[in-house]
Design goal:
10 helices; mainly alpha; 201 residues
């Protein structure tokens, strides 16, 4: 049963990736607005219902690593060692994500996103969702002892750091500058008399 289940999951993942790769290729070749869901399904050789079982919308086809992005951020919080500070762990993950998204191969994709109101709106809603998930993860960590407001504020700062650095001429320098401010904000939230806490800054 485990072998069968594993094979099924691999096949499902392969189909999902094929759909996403096909969609991106069509979007870049013909323009995002000129390509419909049926076009993608036909080119990927899947039924429209199959496409929608993997992707909730046309916009989601462009941001197919959305879930992975979110999981990497939450893992940066939950996967760090007990004595590892939170903010450097988040900075390290954001830096890796920014470097991936500023590679030369990503330039045409971001040009397409910036040129589409629908994709820009989707990206904004996606960022807000990531921030709320990250905030909930921070708030749930017993070693951090943060209020909901503090957790949401820091999470928003971190998500915005990704967007701002990605658009900056020098992403690494931008991250250095932004995370100095985030660390300062985080320090203010620590309990009085214990500015860093056991797993804080």
């Amino acid at each position: 049963m485990t072998v069968t289940s594993g094979r099924r999951e691999r096949k499902k993942a392969a189909t999902r990736q094929r759909i996403a790769d096909t969609a991106l290729q069509l979007f870049l070749e013909r323009g995002y607005e000129a390509v419909g869901i049926r076009d993608v399904a036909a080119e990927a050789d899947v039924a429209v219902t199959t496409l929608f079982s993997h992707f909730a919308s046309k916009e989601a086809l462009v941001f197919e690593r959305d879930d992975d992005f979110e999981q990497r951020l939450t893992q940066a919080v939950t996967g760090r060692t007990p004595d590892e500070p939170l903010i450097p762990a988040l900075r390290r993950e954001i830096q890796a994500l920014v470097r991936h998204c500023t590679a030369d191969s990503a330039t045409p994709i971001w040009r397409m996103i910036n040129g589409s109101p629908a994709l820009r709106e989707y990206e904004e809603s996606m960022r807000l969702r990531h921030a709320e998930t990250l905030a909930a993860t921070i708030a749930a960590d017993p070693g951090l002892s943060q209020t909901t407001t503090a957790s949401r504020t820091i999470a928003r700062f971190v998500i915005d750091a990704y967007s701002l650095a990605r658009e900056a001429p020098d992403p690494d320098a931008a991250l250095d500058e932004i995370f100095r401010m985030i660390e300062a904000a985080w320090a203010v939230t620590r309990p009085s008399g214990n500015p860093t806490g056991p797993a804080g800054l």
